[in-house]
Amino acid sequence: YREGDYDLAGFCVGVVERKNIIDGSKIKAGDAVIGLESNGLHSNGFSLVRKVFSERELKKYASELLKPTRIYVKPVLSLLRSNAIKGIAHITGGAFYDKIARILPDNVNARIYKDSWVVPQIFRLIQDKGNIPDKEMYHTFNMGIGMVLIVESKSAKKIISRLSKFNLKARVIGKVIKGKKEVEIV
After folding, report:
1. Which distant-in-sequence residues (6+ apart) come within 8 Å of 127 by Cβ?
2. Helices marked H in 66-165 — which ranges?
3. C-alpha triplet 50, 144, 101: angle, nearest 5°
4. How many CB atoms are closer than 10 A to CB 90?
5. Which residues pair with 170 in a beta bridge?
6. Is residue 94 within 8 Å of 137, Cβ to Cβ?
7. pTM of the predicted structure, to 2 decimals
8. Contact yes or no for 101/56 (Cβ under 8 A)
9. Which of 32, 44, 132, 150 maximizes the CB count within 10 A of its CB?
10. How do strand 170-178 and strand 108-112 relate by DSSP bridges?
11. Interatomic CA distance for residues 61 and 125, integer angstroms
């Protein structure tokens, strides 16, 4: 690093009983994909953001770009006790395509309907200013969905209701279909 530069990183480690591990193996065609609302970029895609925006624009949009990442621990823990979650993916680096694919069994795909939620304006601004294709946007940014849960379709409504008690907007954004461990965004 040059003088005056620094790097700040953090991490956490968790422990879970083997019988409670959520590894995606129970995911099957017909399951619902629930998206939990993000509150901004969640610290991903900033290399691209710095290429798209000038220094003046970075300052102009700083309050939006630098919102602290929403943490989903309490709402998700409240759901874990019910054994309702078959798969869980935090939509960070690699976003939809990489993170969701990692939790899928080999015989299914996740189909995400991008019109099932309103993408926050900051993402559209980045996309328009940088002339970035949709696929790259959904591979780099969370596009307003910070976490994905895969659950049985019949449980989706109840789970969304429970999440609302945490002032967290959630909605069904897709479904699991037969496939080859891929994510489709349509």
Report:
1. 134, 137
2. 73-80, 95, 101-103, 121-130, 134-140, 156-164
3. 95
4. 16
5. 36
6. no
7. 0.88
8. no
9. 150
10. antiparallel
11. 10
